[in-house]
Design a protein that fits this description.
343 residues; alpha/beta; 5-stranded parallel beta sheet; globular
């Protein structure tokens, strides 16, 4: 190759590399900051490796209902909610696969309301766009995203190129400010109090799409295989909710899930308000989710339930134990102050 041709090739390579770096930086800046309502991957990846005892998965029923710091205060078990808004089981599988690259939980707790979802829900873009780049994200896009969203999920600027007028200092700072672990541990604080108007829980119907349900069960099969391969126990719950399916539907779900994986521990808690100690006049955010007060009670109950099932806290470094203690105290103070203000 002539010297001039080698020089041109080198310039071309440099141009391509610089262009890729600039596009990557622009994608980071233009993509909105996202640190609540699920998909909190940046904070999750800042957790010390192999420090999480319990990994919670699912949709908003998971990230509104479980506060891992409150669970830790009650049980000593560490946890993280790696969930996403209206997240389907197919996306949940890829979340688990990615999450296990840095953590080795003793048990995975999956909130199972997503088995009643449609094939695609409303937040595929957020659920997948905030995953770490790599093979799992790429395969998740091809497996679980609507075809018309795939281009934007592979190339962020397709979705966010017109956000430049909305940019804030926080958006720019993402380039130079490293992410850090936080006290939320994937939990999202909501404090609205749902007015049940003195009624009893109301009925809701799951999706009628049999193809979607079959796809969800297929994803569950992959989740159970992954847990089995990693020696991780799996619990599927239906969390306390004011909008409930019929007992027949729940029975069918349990039969289908345990038919795929007999070792699955299925916990139907939809109507277990009294058992958990929940007050439906105070502890609901809306017809589906618990608010902060309900999440505190349910998280304490979950921690004690897991201890009763034989799970025990792993040893933590002195620094990480102190961080968990501080985080737990933050949420306990917030709860206690809120209760004092309400009394």
């Amino acid at each position: 190759m002539k010297k001039a041709n080698r020089k041109d090739l080198m310039h071309a390579v440099i141009f391509v590399v610089l262009a890729a770096v600039l596009i990557h930086c622009a994608s980071i800046i233009m993509r909105p900051v996202h640190n609540s309502y699920g998909s909190t991957w940046d904070a999750y990846l800042c957790e010390p490796e192999d420090s999480i005892d319990v990994l919670f998965l699912g949709s908003s029923y998971a990230y509104c209902d479980w506060n891992p710091e409150i669970m830790y205060a009650a049980s000593g078990l560490t946890g993280y909610v790696m969930a996403g808004s209206e997240q389907t089981p197919s996306i949940t599988y890829w979340y688990l696969k990615q999450a296990l690259k840095t953590q080795s939980p003793k048990v995975v707790v999956m909130e199972g309301s997503s088995f009643f979802f449609e094939m695609y829900q409303n937040y595929t873009q957020i659920n997948l766009d905030y995953m770490p780049r790599g093979i799992n994200r790429a395969r998740a896009i091809l497996d679980a995203a609507e075809p018309d969203k795939r281009l934007g999920l592979f190339f962020d600027l397709y979705f966010y190129h017109d956000r430049w007028k909305e940019l804030t200092r926080e958006d720019i700072a993402k380039l130079i400010t490293p992410a850090s672990a936080d006290v939320n541990k994937g939990y999202t604080y909501v404090d609205n109090v749902y007015d049940t108007k003195g009624s009893t829980p109301y009925h809701r119907e799951p999706s009628k799409d049999t193809a979607a349900y079959a796809k969800h069960l297929e994803a569950f099969g992959k989740i159970t295989e992954l847990c089995r391969d990693k020696g991780i126990d799996l619990i599927v719950t239906i969390n306390p909710t004011f909008s409930q399916c019929s007992q027949e539907i729940y029975d069918k779900l349990e039969k289908d899930l345990t038919g795929i994986a007999p070792e699955t521990d299925f916990e139907l808690l939809a109507d277990s308000f009294d058992e958990i100690g929940l007050d439906i006049s105070r502890d609901l955010y809306d017809g589906g989710h618990l608010n902060f007060y309900g999440a505190c009670k349910f998280s304490e109950w979950t921690g004690k339930m897991l201890l009763d099932k034989g799970y025990s806290p792993r040893e933590q470094t002195k620094e990480n134990a102190a961080a968990w203690d501080d985080g737990a105290q933050y949420w306990l103070n917030l709860r206690d102050n809120a209760q004092s203000a309400a009394s």
